[in-house]
């Protein structure tokens, strides 16, 4: 049994028994296992097909999707439900009726009612947070078997009454006499009926993410063409992966009263010419971020099953790192900051990584990371001297090879698990040892995690 | 405590702020210049777009000087002549400044009206050529775009501005007693409509980029960028240039139209303005308002209306001619000279003559959460100073914290801050009742009651808990700092910082140094004041320092005048019509009668008959009856919550009657009353310079105008003497001396100036 690394800088003795097992490999580190800390192994993970919002899932509720992911997971792994100690889900825009969506989904999926469940939120890295929370629970000896996942249903969002209207309604509730009620009602004005949409903008800066992405593109001098090219790559690779059946984490979902959904529906490889025709979506009329080079609003859920012991197959998630920065000008720079840090912590370099799975909310994200790692930005803003050279650039041929959020979709709360499973499945398919997962999130936060193939 | 609680005393002058050069980081880019021989302007060609870069050498800001003007003409002629170039972009090389306006020194140097008019006409000519340019020119604006800078920008075919806080557009010439003299009065009304244009020109207000876009002053906005491949500022400028080039190309290819879609309201306004009757009504209304506000003391606003009118009613040729002539006339006026003098003085008082302090003040502690203490806290926290606000009671502390919050929240309402920024700024403030955390303080400012023994007690208490390097500053309006410092273990670290209420509105800070105050302590105090956004005068310690000491004799005369039976309302109107922003009687109410009494007694003891004239008994009786001014609801006037109209306090009649003195007819005309007040003020100010309380006349003028509301159109007491002649003032003083006695005796320095007419405070 191996253990996960939480202490970053200690090198494992090269004479460890793992060194013998991995003698054939040329990694700078033979394994991330660390003595005295419990081992955490991902057994398997699944996700529902990711669909454009407003399509087949539009009549569902978030816990329906989450439940589908859970049942799919049970079906895939044939693990007895009773062994699961705890369930954690991530979600971003909460359905108020099911604010602890993890619990509702677990009950509906037939898990024991003795299995506690909670929901976490951390914007686009909510599922990452669900996973790492689980890792913590296992590592600290609280639990042995965890299911973590995430869900997002953008087809239905909680649109509220205005604050004034809500106040009036609540006051009416408390009013005792008819007179009081009438005097309250007399305060009603037509504008009270104006609805309040969930904010699409960053609360602290009132800036929408697309707008921020466009500024980011300008700050890193990423052209429209570059962004379109990368988006096209993402869609083409996703299409190829889908056609070749590589997206094995997808489980079919029989939508009640509708056809069974078996695959993601947002993959639409187009042509650069067609993409060039689109108008900028955020900074008009001269911006560079368009609908084609951003991820779309997506419905979907994912779930992952992991435990302390190795059972079937396995990927050790793990060394991970959360970072946060200025939510205005560095909103989307999470992966840029987190990647070198997590590598450093694990004692690895870019060359050690066999599979990169980065969250690409916008095409510009990819270029930005590429350009940042190679520029003064590294020194000026990340307090590193020539660290850029040490870390190196993520090689394109290992980067999001089966598509990414741009093409597969980005259900905010569910993307994290998809990234980890994509990295794991790619390691299995391509025979690598380490995968690196990274994602950015609203609030200027970011997450990066290293996944290691379980030693055979 | 409250030396001058004249709210909004200089609100008209707040736009001065934009003129001073702020601490922008301005690098001089060499760029891709085609001709390195030019020092102010160079240009490079990118594709078929010429990028013209403006960069005044050795300056933080670009100003329209003669050199810049001629180089610009040269460059534009080359661009127009070139076959290779189809369009142009005009951009500054300084990230914080497009063009801050005309070079004021250039204007001041002009000796005759004709010279100034000619300058204006030259500028008009080149801008007209620019307006009619066959090749589209795009102005790419980042940072201040003011005065002639804006006039240049609106002559271009297209304007793109960054949505940065530093990007402001405006025509502040009126604040210098002039008018936009490079076609601004003619182009602005066409561009944003007559009402909006008049508003801009008459108030001189700064317009932020997003507002400018709505008004139609700029065509596109560019968001400032965060850190990326290059530092944010540098990359933002590059991005702005890139975007501007795209638009320049689009304009040249006729893919983009420079015409703007007007909104419904705008269309309606524009339509209404085509009806002569409506136009006449608008002119009339604006003129009335201007007359009421300026009381005929400022010639510029009326001339601006006149020039705009000429342009619209008689065509642009007449308009341009009138603009250049009136510009010349205005620049030669005393008012304009006074206002320009104030501008120079303000620039001077924005510098730290003591150099950089050894240690930056990062942690500030304020004692006393009253009006002043909380006000000081407010202007400190929003500049990022970690501030402790300590009071003796929870209610006092609570009130103070509320005041700070309200001040910040008002900014949110005006959209100068976001609610999020407000919260994060407010988190810099810690309210407490004890001395916890004082061990980290770099500076303590006490704003407790004006009582020497109390100040001594706090000083001792504070010195027991603060670190060695910590500076102790006392915010007092009259108590001598050396007396406060007498009980200090380290008098070199004690200094006076006299703020003016309301602190967030009044720009002045009077810093008082004693003989023992160390240079580094002074440097620190000035650095903190500058950080708080103040204009700073540094004076020597003495009873009443400078500001209070000047005000006191004038106040004594106010009492005398009231005793002579002049109605407080009449006195108010006499003082405001002389140019004071607040009437003399109202001022006493605002300051607080008890405070005025304190000061009058303290200073009266020291200065004796020179501060005599009025009988302080008047104040004593008012205090005993509880007529403390606005704060107690009654003073010379009655103050009621929510009531704007001020009624005279009829209970004052008996007090005034009991102290009544017969007026002296030879010195009691309206003009004499005004001059009795002003000459005493001026005489005392000159005395302060004579005695070395003041270091320079410029500081004296700034202190009087920004702290006490001395009429800005007169430029301050010293400028006033220079412009109107020392002899005239001495003559007046002598006349009053004959009638009243020694309080009007001209001081030696003033007499010297009168005796040798070549002697000037400003050479």
UniProtKB/TrEMBL annotation, chain A:
Keyword Mitochondrion applies: yes
The keyword Acyltransferase is assigned to this record: yes
Domain Thiolase N-terminal per the UniProt entry, residue ranges: 40-304
Compartments in which it is found: Endoplasmic reticulum; Mitochondrion inner membrane; Mitochondrion outer membrane
GO biological process: fatty acid beta-oxidation
Pathway: Lipid metabolism; fatty acid beta-oxidation
Domain Thiolase C-terminal: 318-452
Enzyme Commission number(s) from the entry: 2.3.1.155, 2.3.1.16
UniProt xrefs under Gene3D superfamilies: 3.40.47.10
Gene Ontology terms for molecular function: acetyl-CoA C-acyltransferase activity; acetyl-CoA C-myristoyltransferase activity
Catalyzed reaction equations: dodecanoyl-CoA + acetyl-CoA = 3-oxotetradecanoyl-CoA + CoA; an acyl-CoA + acetyl-CoA = a 3-oxoacyl-CoA + CoA; hexanoyl-CoA + acetyl-CoA = 3-oxooctanoyl-CoA + CoA; tetradecanoyl-CoA + acetyl-CoA = 3-oxohexadecanoyl-CoA + CoA
Keywords annotated in UniProt: Acetylation, Acyltransferase, Endoplasmic reticulum, Fatty acid metabolism, Lipid metabolism, Membrane, Mitochondrion, Mitochondrion inner membrane, Mitochondrion outer membrane, Transferase, Transit peptide
GO cellular component: endoplasmic reticulum; mitochondrial fatty acid beta-oxidation multienzyme complex; mitochondrial inner membrane; mitochondrial outer membrane
PROSITE patterns (UniProt xref): THIOLASE_1, THIOLASE_2, THIOLASE_3
Stated role: Mitochondrial trifunctional enzyme catalyzes the last three of the four reactions of the mitochondrial beta-oxidation pathway. The mitochondrial beta-oxidation pathway is the major energy-producing process in tissues and is performed through four consecutive reactions breaking down fatty acids into acetyl-CoA. Among the enzymes involved in this pathway, the trifunctional enzyme exhibits specificity for long-chain fatty acids.
Quaternary context: Heterotetramer of 2 alpha/HADHA and 2 beta/HADHB subunits; forms the mitochondrial trifunctional enzyme. Also purified as higher order heterooligomers including a 4 alpha/HADHA and 4 beta/HADHB heterooligomer which physiological significance remains unclear. The mitochondrial trifunctional enzyme interacts with MTLN. Interacts with RSAD2/viperin.
Family membership: Belongs to the thiolase-like superfamily. Thiolase family.
Protein name as catalogued: Trifunctional enzyme subunit beta, mitochondrial
Organism in which the protein naturally occurs: Macaca nemestrina (Pig-tailed macaque)
Gene giving rise to this polypeptide: HADHB
UniProtKB/TrEMBL annotation, chain B:
InterPro entries, sorted: 3-OHacyl-CoA_DH_CS, 3-OHacyl-CoA_DH_NAD-bd, 3HC_DH_C, 6-PGluconate_DH-like_C_sf, ClpP/crotonase-like_dom_sf, Enoyl-CoA_hyd/isom_CS, Enoyl-CoA_hydra/iso, Fa_ox_alpha_mit
Domain 3-hydroxyacyl-CoA dehydrogenase NAD binding positions: 364-541
A GO CC term attached to the entry: mitochondrial fatty acid beta-oxidation multienzyme complex
Active-site residues from the entry: 510
Site feature Important for hydroxyacyl-coenzyme A dehydrogenase activity, where: 498
Cellular localization per UniProt: Mitochondrion inner membrane
GO MF annotation list: enoyl-CoA hydratase activity; long-chain (3S)-3-hydroxyacyl-CoA dehydrogenase (NAD+) activity; long-chain fatty acyl-CoA hydrolase activity; NAD+ binding; transferase activity
Pathway entry: Lipid metabolism; fatty acid beta-oxidation
Enzyme Commission number, as recorded: 1.1.1.211, 4.2.1.17
Domain 3-hydroxyacyl-CoA dehydrogenase C-terminal: 544-639, 676-755
Gene3D superfamilies, alphabetized: 1.10.1040.50, 2-enoyl-CoA Hydratase, Chain A, domain 1, NAD(P)-binding Rossmann-like Domain
Site (Important for long-chain enoyl-CoA hydratase activity): 151, 173
Catalytic activity: 1'-[1,2-di-(9Z,12Z-octadecadienoyl)-sn-glycero-3-phospho]-3'-[1-(9Z,12Z-octadecadienoyl)-sn-glycero-3-phospho]-glycerol + (9Z,12Z)-octadecadienoyl-CoA = 1',3'-bis-[1,2-di-(9Z,12Z-octadecadienoyl)-sn-glycero-3-phospho]-glycerol + CoA; (3S)-hydroxyoctanoyl-CoA + NAD(+) = 3-oxooctanoyl-CoA + NADH + H(+); (3S)-hydroxyhexadecanoyl-CoA + NAD(+) = 3-oxohexadecanoyl-CoA + NADH + H(+); (3S)-hydroxyhexadecanoyl-CoA = (2E)-hexadecenoyl-CoA + H2O
Pfam short name (any one): ECH_1
UniProt xrefs under PANTHER family: TRIFUNCTIONAL ENZYME SUBUNIT ALPHA (PTHR43612), TRIFUNCTIONAL ENZYME SUBUNIT ALPHA, MITOCHONDRIAL (PTHR43612:SF3)
Summary of subunit composition and partner proteins: Heterotetramer of 2 alpha/HADHA and 2 beta/HADHB subunits; forms the mitochondrial trifunctional enzyme. Also purified as higher order heterooligomers including a 4 alpha/HADHA and 4 beta/HADHB heterooligomer which physiological significance remains unclear. The mitochondrial trifunctional enzyme interacts with MTLN.
Family of the protein in this entry: In the central section; belongs to the 3-hydroxyacyl-CoA dehydrogenase family.
The protein's name: Trifunctional enzyme subunit alpha, mitochondrial
Organism: Macaca nemestrina
